[in-house]
Structures are given as structure tokens and as C-alpha cells.
Amino acid sequence: MSKLAIHGGAAVGALNVPAWPIFGKRELELVADVVSSGNWGFLGPKEQEFEASFARFCGTGYGVAVANGTVSLKLALEALGIGPGDEVIVPGLTWQATATAVLDVNAVPVLVDVEPDTYTIDPRAIEAAVTTRTRAIIPVHLYGRIADMDAIMRLADRYRLHVVEDCAHQHGSEWKGRPVGSIGSVGSFSFQSSKIINAGEGGFLTTNSQGLADLLQSLKMCGRDARAGAPVMHSGNYRMTEFQAAILIAQLDRLETQNAERDRNALELERALSELPGLRPLYRSPNITKQSYYCLTVRYDREAWDGIPKEAFMAALVAELEGTLNCSNVYEPLNASPFYNPRNKNTHKLSDAYWRAIDPSRFELPVSERAFAEEAINFSHTMLLLGAADRRRLADAANKIFEHRHELREAAQTRRSQREPLSEVV
Ligand SMILES: *Cc1c(COP(=O)(O)O)cnc(C)c1O
After folding, report:
1. pLDDT by residue (tens digit) across 69-128?
2. 176 a catalytic residue
3. Can you give the pLDDT at residue 421?
4. 382 lines ligand 1 (CB under 6 A)
5. Tens digit of each residue's pLDDT (9 = 90 or more) over 118-140
6. Element (DSSP H or E) covering residue 219
7. What Cα–Cα distance (Å) separates residue 295 from each residue in 21, 71, 88, 136, 402?
């Protein structure tokens, strides 16, 4: 008789997942303020207030709110003077926006691999990819680990490169007491609806350089000077609305408490899950003094699970928790991602040499590929705000599946033997 829920056995039970996003009266009041003020955009008071408070939260002197976390990266590169003929090093394991921003300034994204124990950009791979044309690195603080900022800043120093931190996943993380977004030349954030602080859409740039901050303000506002005066350069419109800023002011008040709770729960969940031989947490550097999470990533060791693929384990886990578990794979590496096809777009046909240089398939990313195909499992940040009983239930479900893993193995074998004669017919 089957024990696993995925084969018709009794499930461990549903999780009580908190509704997301979490909001209250304050969000409603601040949005109502905006509506009744009639001042709905263009450097309104809410946007200016949020720029000041989010910059303070990130420990930077300046902050620039923008439309989303893709254009924020593009504007950071433009402000740093990066353009045609330049190369920018980005990790191969990230959301496509990190590399797309490089294409958007007509530079070449150079994809490099990630570290096997943190899944963040590998400093040795960065160094191996540096050429005379390299101008910048975009480390991504991916899921629930900060990239190794000591090693990255050392390389930036040695090769005179700019560093743009992509912090879309990690509002509030700190490396040796320094908030992410305050370590490189510029930090870039996203407030898109899946992120841990969101206004549906939105983006942000942090910097300690007044010159860069002024330039970013101009780039965001059709080339007007930083005080919204006369045009001083050519640019387009990348502004945020007052509605977004209002929501973000209220959401920012909730962020630190939520971050602390997510980290406590992540540590507990890592401990509980890693009692199983086949689930390992990522390495956590002692330089991480605060860790915030877009996802909690664990490493699945297929061998310890008798060869059962991670997808089968994930499906069984979802079934034990009656469909309430929010878990997923990591990003498909950019050298073969269906979301990253720079040669599908005519505006990228700048020259034959450029066309060849932006071909993603020329980059080898074995660690990213293994993470995607075999190893990595992401638990959404909403799973890090579960109560104690639900956290226990999640770990119990994983334990139960491990105990009855022979069922998954046998099911996989049956599927294989049923397929074989079919393939002979075809
Ligand atoms: C979400 C995200 C972005 C882009 O942000 P949007 O606001 O969605 O444009 C950039 N980088 C990473 C790593 C992201 O996850």
C-alpha cells in the first residue's frame, strides 16, 4: 500500500501560508493621500520621501527611484559611461534582466559561472574572463546569499572595473555590516511584485557619489538636470509614480522585521532539512552579517536519494503539503535560457562582430547547469514566514519522503519500462 500522498497515501497536511503581500491600513491611507492630492507623478513628495528613506536604509548618501529593476541596471551602466566596445561580466545564473541591461547600452554581456556552494558569481571565473575591454562587473546577490564582495572589490580594484550590485533579491542584506547596494559604485533594486518589498513594479538605484546620483536623476527624467530644471543631456523617461512610492513607504516599515523573521526561520529550516543526508544548505560566509531572502535555496544530492531526480522529490513534497508548498527550480542558465535570446532582436544587429559576441551559447556554465538540472531547490520567501507548526510540517514531509523513497524509485522504474516498448514502435 502506498504511503506517499503523490501515490494516493495520506498527506502530511496543508500549510497555513500567510497571504502575500502583507499590507494594512497604512498602505491604503498613503495611496488615498496620493489620489486626493492630484499629484500623481513627476518628483512628487512621496517619491522624494521614499528616495531619502530607502537610501538611508541602504546606508548610501543618495537614492534614485525608477520605473523597474531592469531599467535601473541600464541607467547604472549608462551613468558609468559603459557602451559600445565594452564588456560587462555577469553571472550566468540570474534573471535575464542582469544581462539584458548590458545589451541595452550596446555593450557585450560576458556570462561567467557561479560558485558551487553559494550559487553567486565565482570570483575566479570573473578573473578568467577579464579582457582589455572589460569595464564592469554586475554581481547578483542571488536568492539567499550575498556574492563574495571582498573578492569582487579586490578584482575591481586590480583591473579598474566598476561594480554594479544587482540587489533585486536582497533588500536589507549586509556584508561585514555594510548593506548591499552600498559596496559597489551603484546598487540596483527591484520592487516587482514577486520581490520581498513590492509596489507591483518599481526600481531603485543607490550610490554614495553625488555626481553619479545627479547623472542618474537626469537619465531618469528625459535629460533634465537633477533638480528637474533645464535639459542637460539626452535621455528618456524612467520615472516611478506617486502611487508606487506611497506603497513602498508603507512596505519599507515592515521590511526589517520580516527580514529578521525570514532569516531565523531559514536557519531553522536549513537545520531541520539538512538532518536528511540528501539535502544540504548553501555555504554561509561569516562575512554575512544580515541575510535577506528572495528564496531559500537547498542542494539536493541525487545519489543520497537513490538516483531519484529532484523534480520527483519536489512533486512528492508538494503533494504531501496538499499543494500549499511554494517551491521551484532556479533560473535556467542564460547560455540556454528561453528568456534570454539576444539574437532574436533586430536592434541588437549592430555589426557582425557584435552579433557573434552576444551569442549566449558560446559561454560554458557547468556549475549553473548542474544547479538547474540536478541540484538546486528554491523555497519561496513566503515559506519563510510560516509559523512553527507549519515549519515542522514541511520538515516532516521531507523526512517522510526520504523514508519512503523506494516508492518514488519504483514509480520512476515503472515509467521507464512502460516507455521503452513505445520508443521501439516509434
Ligand atoms: C527581478 C529582477 C530584476 C529586474 O527587476 P524588474 O523590476 O522585474 O525589472 C533584475 N535582476 C534580478 C536578479 C531580478 O530578480
Report:
1. 999 999 999 999 999 999 999 999 999 999 999 999 999 999 999 999 999 999 999 999
2. no
3. 52
4. no
5. 999 999 999 999 999 999 999 99
6. helix 210-220
7. 15, 23, 26, 27, 23
Contact 57, 259 (CB under 8 A): no
The Cα–Cα gap between 162 and 117 comes to 25
**Cell 511584485 appears where?**
193
CB contact at 8 A, 55 and 61: yes
Residue type, 230: A
Is 393 near ligand 1, meaning CB less than 6 Å away? Answer: no
CA of 115 relative to ligand 1 center, distance in Å: 21
Cβ–ligand 1 distance for 192 under 6 Å, the answer yes
pLDDT tens for each residue of 240-260: 999 999 999 999 999 999 999
Provide the whole-model pTM: 0.96
What are the CA-CA distances from residue 322 to residues 16, 317, 318, 382 (Å)?
A: 11, 9, 6, 16
Question: What are the structural domains, with CATH classification, of the chain?
Answer: 5-17+255-330+372-419 (3.90.1150.10), 25-252 (3.40.640.10)
How does pLDDT run across 174-218, given as a tens digit for each residue?
999 999 999 999 999 999 999 999 999 999 999 999 999 999 999
User: Which pairs count as long-range contacts for 175-179, CB under 8 Å and 24+ apart, including other chains?
Assistant: 175/146, 175/149, 175/150, 175/287, 175/288, 175/289, 176/150, 176/287, 176/289, 177/289, 178/59, 179/57, 179/58, 179/59, 179/60, 179/290
Residue 97 CA, closest ligand 1 atom number: 10
Q: Supply 186's cell numbers.
A: 551603484
